[in-house]
């Protein structure tokens, strides 16, 4: 009788367990995503806060998890950054943040790289609570920008994706050191 009771409890626990995934705040991101022919694993999660408000939860996906920003940026492999917004953020503020991140983390950016960041800013839309923005890098194609699950465009070049990712994991991450540590899985 006791064995039957324990067995039933285990079955109930298995059925009631939530789907696997990384969680930060009220946001759960999957442990893995498929990008083309690659399976990417959640490297780390972080919460972007401004003053006392949570702005977005983010997850970095890599082919091989790493806590070393330099190694991540050196790899020419698929990777993805997903932001799940927790409040409304105007398109102009998002676009301005990209340019600030570029200036802070890639000070020697050439004109062509700056132009691609301006193009990124033009793809931005005002994001509302519950909406997502993803930047998916594939070495063959470049960085696909997806807003609310819809492709907004593809920006070529590993240098672009490195500079974009450096906005979060570079020497002066816009969202701060705590965010950087979370994304790096520390």
- Our count of helices gives 6
Helix-and-strand structural type: alpha+beta
Q: Please describe the biggest sheet, giving its number of strands, its sense, and whether it closes into a barrel.
A: 7 strands, antiparallel
Extended strand count: 9
Tell me roughly what share of residues is in helical segments. 25-40%
Structure report:
The protein is α+β, with helices and mostly antiparallel strands and about 190 residues long. It has a single domain (about 20-185), classed as Chalcone isomerase. It has helices at about 1-15, 70-75, 90-105, 110-125, 160-170, 175-185, and strands at about 20-25, 25-30, 30-35, 40-50, 55-60, 80-85, 130-140, 140-145, 150-155. A seven-stranded antiparallel beta sheet has the order 3-4-5-6-7-8-9. Strands 1-2 form a two-stranded antiparallel ribbon. Strand 1 and strand 2 (about 25-30) form a beta hairpin. Helix 3 (about 90-105) runs antiparallel to helix 4 (about 110-125) and helix 3 (about 90-105) crosses helix 5. The longest helix is centred in the N-terminal third of the chain and has 15 residues, at about 1-15. The termini are far apart. The model is unreliable at about 1-20 (pLDDT under 50).
Question: What attributes does this structure have?
Answer:
single chain; 186 residues; alpha+beta; Chalcone isomerase; 6 helices; 9 strands; disordered N terminus
């Amino acid at each position: 009788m006791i064995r039957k009771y324990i067995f039933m409890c285990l079955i109930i626990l298995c059925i009631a367990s939530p789907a696997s995934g990384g969680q930060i705040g009220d946001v759960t991101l999957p442990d893995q995503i498929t990008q083309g022919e690659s399976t990417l694993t959640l490297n780390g999660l972080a919460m972007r806060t401004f003053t006392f408000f949570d702005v977005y939860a983010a997850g970095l996906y890599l082919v091989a998890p790493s806590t070393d920003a330099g190694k991540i940026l050196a790899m020419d492999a698929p990777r993805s950054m997903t932001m799940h917004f927790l409040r409304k953020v105007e398109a102009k503020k998002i676009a301005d943040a990209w340019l600030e991140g570029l200036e802070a983390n890639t000070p020697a950016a050439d004109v062509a790289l700056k132009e691609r960041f301006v193009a990124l800013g033009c793809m931005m839309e005002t994001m509302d609570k519950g909406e997502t923005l993803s930047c998916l890098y594939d070495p063959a194609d470049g960085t696909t920008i997806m807003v609310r699950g819809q492709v907004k465009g593809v920006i070529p070049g590993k240098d672009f994706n490195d500079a974009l990712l450096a906005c979060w994991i570079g020497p002066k991450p816009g969202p701060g050191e705590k965010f950087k540590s979370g994304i790096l899985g520390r």
